[in-house]
Structures are given as C-alpha cells and as structure tokens.
Known about the structure:
The chain is α+β, with helices and mostly antiparallel strands. It folds into 2 domains: 17-149, Sandwich (Jelly Rolls); 156-227, Winged helix-like DNA-binding domain superfamily/Winged helix DNA-binding domain (Arc Repressor Mutant, subunit A, Orthogonal Bundle). 42% of the residues lie in helices and 23% in strands. It is built from 8 helices and 11 strands. It has helices at residues 28-36, 91-96, 117-126, 128-154, 157-172, 181-188, 192-204, 220-227; strands at 37-42, 47-49, 57-63, 66-71, 77-83, 88-89, 103-106, 110-116, 177-178, 208-211, 214-217. The strands form 3 sheets. It has a 4-stranded antiparallel sheet. A 4-stranded antiparallel sheet has the order 2-7-4-5. Strands 9-11-10 form a 3-stranded antiparallel sheet. Helix 5 packs across helix 8 and helix 6 crosses helix 7.
Amino acid sequence: xxxxxxKHVSCENCGSRNSSLFAGLHGEQVDELNEFKxxxxxxxxxxxxxxxxxxxxxxxxxxxKVKVFALGDEGKEQIIQVAGEGEILGFRSIxxxxxxxxxxxxxxxxxxxxxxxxxxxxxxxxxxxxRNELFKEFSKELGERAEFIxxxxxxxVRERLAFILLILKEVYGEDPINMSxxxxxxxxxxxxxxLIRLLKEFKEDGLIDIATRKLTILNQAGIIKxxxxxx
Length: 231
C-alpha cells in the first residue's frame, strides 16, 4: 500500500523542481501547482501505473528511482528507462488519451508527487512557457529514444552493457549505481547470468568497481570507447 501519511513536499522548497519541467514556474504558478498535487511515499517495488491502464495524471519524482518497462510475450520485463529525481512520468499518455503502453515501478523507496490530468492540462493551457518546455522535452525524448533503439538493436551485449552503464551514471550522478542484476539485465536485454559474467570482466579490466550490489564506474573514457560512442 502507498503511504499517504508521508509529509507533503512543498513545490517552493522542492530541490528536484529545478531539474524538472516545472523549473520555469514562479510565484502564483508554483502555488497553483502545489495546490493541485498530492505527495505519496512508495516502498521499493511498488507500481505507479500498469501497462493497459487508463492514465489519470502525471507523476513527478521528488526522491528515488523508477523503472519504466514493457512486458514481452513470456512476461519478461524489457526496461526502457530509469527515471530519477525531477523527472515526470506519464504525460505522453495524457496527450494521446490512450492506455499506458508501459508500466512503472519504483527501484527503491521513493517520494513521488501526483498531478491529476485535468490540473496538468490546465497548467499547459494557461502557461505558454511551460507548454514550450514540454514541447522541447518531447523533441528531446524523440531523439534520445531513437539513439537508444539504434544502440540496443545494433550493438553486441558487451557494447550494450557499456551504453546502459553510461545512462545509469547520468541517472545516479555521484552515487554508486544501485540496481539488481536482474533489473540491469532487463535493461541491457540479456540473461542475468550473461550480465554477471560481463560485469566481472569489466571489473577485472579496471572499468568498474563493485561493492556488494553497488557499482561505480572507474574508467568512464574506457566505458565510452567500449560502447562505441564519442562524447
């Protein structure tokens, strides 16, 4: 069950808002957003929404990480995104008016704010700056999604793992990457056993360090080269 007793997070004092689409809101706009939303505490492995369900609103991550995934024919997860603080989930389905094409579940304990569909659309209608930022985000995500699909389709498993580690480094920032081997394998698109073997090889090559489940990139340039990217 969702813990509705978690302390309400004020948008004005939210440290994650500055890295979200709501960063450009000020004054009365922030007050309006704060009035519209509800904050909930989610335990690890709790669902935000399920593939096929009807979208009721959008979710803004205040604290924690969330995996976005689709299910294959045999029920195996294919993770397509790991979202962190400041990211907004579910707004594409709000515009399409169609059921969710993916599911979202927390990877760790998280605090997540929910904004009802009508309130979110009201902000878009009355705030041109926010609307423009949302359109920019759509364009950015189209480019990133195309890059993701190309890399996942054309690269070897070793190259895909390096590519995914770079994505996770951006999500986790200065913190170690803390993700189960099964989830990481579902992000890379390989068997868990294969992932564990490759991580061991990466560690032996001095590319990463692993302490229990937590992973730290030691040689980012080497990971970038292995992924076949030029950054």
